[in-house]
Amino acid sequence: MQLRKLFAVAAAGVCLAFGALAQTDPAASSMDGGARSPAKSSKKKSTKKSSKTSKSSRSSKKKKAKKTQAPAQQAAVPDLPVPDDGEAPKLTHEALAGGSRGKPLAVAAHADDPNGVYGPVLYVRKQGLGAGDYVPIRMAASKIVPGDYSVEVPAALTNVEVLEYYLEAWDMAGNGPAQVGTADAPLAVPLAEEKKAVATVMIHPKGAPPAITHSAVAHAPKGKPVEISARLVGDTGVQNAAVMFRHTGEKDYKALPMGNIGGDDYTATIPAAMVTSDLEYYLEAYDKYGNGPARSGSPGIPYSLKLAEAVAPVPAQAAAPVASKRMLEDESEPTYVGLGFDGGAPGGAGLTLLVRPLWWLRLNAGLAYNVAGFGWRGGVSLAPGQWTVTPTLNLDVGQYLSGDFNKVVTITESNPAVASAERALLAKTTYKFATAQLGLEFGSQRRFVFYVRGGITYFESTLPHAELSAIAQSNNPDPSNTITVTQDVKYSSIVPCASLGFNIFIY
Amino acid sequence: MRNGRLIALLFLPLLGCYAQIEAPSVTMTHNLCGTTDCMPGLGASLTVWQVSGANTFSVSFGDQPLLNPTNSVGPTTVNTSLLLNQGEFDMITTGAGADFSGVNTVDLYAVNPGVSTAGDPCATPANCTKIASFNKTTDGAANRQLVLKGNGSDLAKLIDTSTHTLSLEIRPSGNAPTPALWNAQVSMDMSLTSRANLP
In terms of residue numbers, what domain contains A295? Predict the structure, then answer.
């Protein structure tokens, strides 16, 4: 179990590293630029001009798209590619007319600036609270429309009659903030109780949807499984966590349940068969009372996952440490050769070489040992998936070439002749076997799995007639008769069997 | 409910579990006279044999659990069958006329468990079960070896469970070999199968 835990932590770490390195989100990659804005906060200028909410500014967003992308792409570079224009970003927002109480509230805005945009930041508070009670929430950039930003106010903050908010944004040179509303004159949005149908009355106890922390997976190799991980934290539990994904251009999302891999960490793997063209996805989850969904991304603004034919050079990866890059490659590439070790009853122990010619087919061959002697064994395993917990069908055959069962059997026969014959019989007991087992494998099919199996096994052994004749004659109470076993005796049985072991794929 | 059925289905193969021993050929041999010729010959009628009492003998198998038709071992029951493949008479005595060419028929009987073996138990047919036979007309004349064909009787059911013995009686017809006294070895070739179904 320690190995399992270690594996889970390592896998989560690799996935998080992958997400972080693959992040090309302009907003996310502008963190360095954003950090500089307080240094220039003394340059605060009036933003009244830019806080106008005219729709006409939205019509020019396509023309300015190139300008807004430029600083974001070079955010990691200390110097601005465009001279400081001294202007705050243009920030536009359509005021919200209303919302549902206790439900996430989506807020969208548009912001652009030749020097790139930091933020925007949404500040929300319950109507009537003080100026210091605003809760800041950073808005996320759209993957589709440059300059569009959105965020969902968590349901936990919308259990009020009226929510007040305002928006602020800076450019990467620190100019700003551009504002829509202000702390003293916020926009107000009334939140109404959601009408409930009589037939579907549900009373939710207190609680709130879980908070989702997720590093977007932006790139992946085509035709390989894509693992998507997130941290889901909720005071009232987590349930129905899922990755909702679709191919770019499709309308409907497919749901892929996320499994808990320990603590608050959840993961799901998009099967290789589905990774055929660029994907879009978002995450959602509920608490155990059905509150939610909490989302990372949304159906309208999903994360974009670009696929590459080979291991494509990802800009963020190019600057990553070599060791981290190596780990990413290791985790995504298939493995073909490994070693397996298992033990069980009544089959004994085995050390086998594993070869995986197809992702769902595994061959094994190696040594078998059962205390009494050694033999060989080989078999096939079929795994219908590459999941954290994967069911398998396992078929094995083998033969013990030597076997001295006097090591494990105590002979209680008082007749010395019979005891001697029995010892001679046990000293060379060999047998063949064939086993069919169903198993569950825990871990990564690419690297390390621990498994338990159960099934039935067929044994066949031939007992030499000479020793059996000696035993029979020794037991014969009538000296006028002679009892002879003239042919070898066959012993066969089908019995339940169980085993456990682990596989390590090394190449 | 579906899960319950699925689990039941997965455990279904366990109903086929068993353990089995097959001994295709176990031979028991018995000399009619020990080491000295004792059977009356001179071509006399073989009915004399009945009178001599040498036509009955017992085979003791000892207290072997596997030789009981059914035997409980833990949660399982071991079922055993001991089938007679064939019986055989091999002439030991040497010399002219020391053969079975004058024998017309030989029937080998097993005395049913619980029946007294004193005298000629198979004189009453209900006391015995025929397990093998030889007929000169259909099998051809025998020489120094006479083979009796088994009829598939299960000897395990004919072994007395208290004495662990199988009592046999030979009922021949025809003429005895020509030596004054003769001896032969009787052998029975049997196949043993013991099977325990698990659980």
Answer: 1-22+209-321
